[in-house]
Amino acid sequence: MTSPPSPHYTDVAARNLRRIESLSDGVFSIAMTLLVLNLRVPAAALVRTEAAVGPALLRLLPDLGGYVLGFLSLGIFWVCQSTQFTYLERSDRRLAWWHISFLLVVGLLPFSTAFLTTHLPLRGAVLVYWANLLLPGLALLGSYRYAQRQGLLRPAEAAVSRALVRRLGLMQLQYAAAVALCFVHVYAGVGLLLLVQLNYAVGLVASRWLGD
């Protein structure tokens, strides 16, 4: 009686979804923590009187805005990925690498956020940040499409699938619109970007067109 053929490594690798989720949660928690390191406490030599406290804190507003923007971005991508995990039935090696690629660019968000706040008047800084929003979106979309083709998803209505893909697409279109506005007025573009993030995080505008 012949023994069954040994499985190929690629057929058995990275099938544990919980391990991928655990890695993702770890990367997101570290990235969110790193954002706060961009908030520098004003030097004691610059804040010697009560009157100096207010101006010192005002100087921190760009960094504080960057912290909020970066935290919202990470939170939105975490929710998107966790939603995708809800509909995944199993994994394989290639899907795992799709999500590792997603985490690769997610881990850069503290850097791109700091670059944006440090060089905010420059449109190039906004483009760097936008690229760091575009790449995770593409990686998430690619991972979901791959899971669809390989039959790795739980049975779900087509409407659910369309909703997931539509949300990722609308997010990227709105990010692109905010970046385009930066070529007219940099601060207006960044403000629109922050509003888009707030909408996806807390639903400021209850509109299906906006992806809520």
Automatic annotation (TrEMBL):
InterPro entries per record: TMEM175-like (IPR010617)
Look up and give the membrane topology term: Multi-pass membrane protein
Q: Where in the cell is it found?
A: Membrane
Recorded superkingdom: Bacteria
What catalytic activity does the UniProt entry give for this protein?
Answer: K(+)(in) = K(+)(out)
Membrane-spanning regions, if any?
A: 67-88, 95-115, 127-147, 168-188
Where is it mainly found?
membrane
Q: Does the keyword Transport apply?
A: yes
Per UniProt, the keywords (alphabetical) are:
Ion channel, Ion transport, Membrane, Potassium, Potassium channel, Potassium transport, Transmembrane, Transmembrane helix, Transport
Can the keyword Membrane be found in this entry's annotation? yes
- Give the family, as the similarity comment puts it: Belongs to the TMEM175 family.
What's this protein's name? DUF1211 domain-containing protein
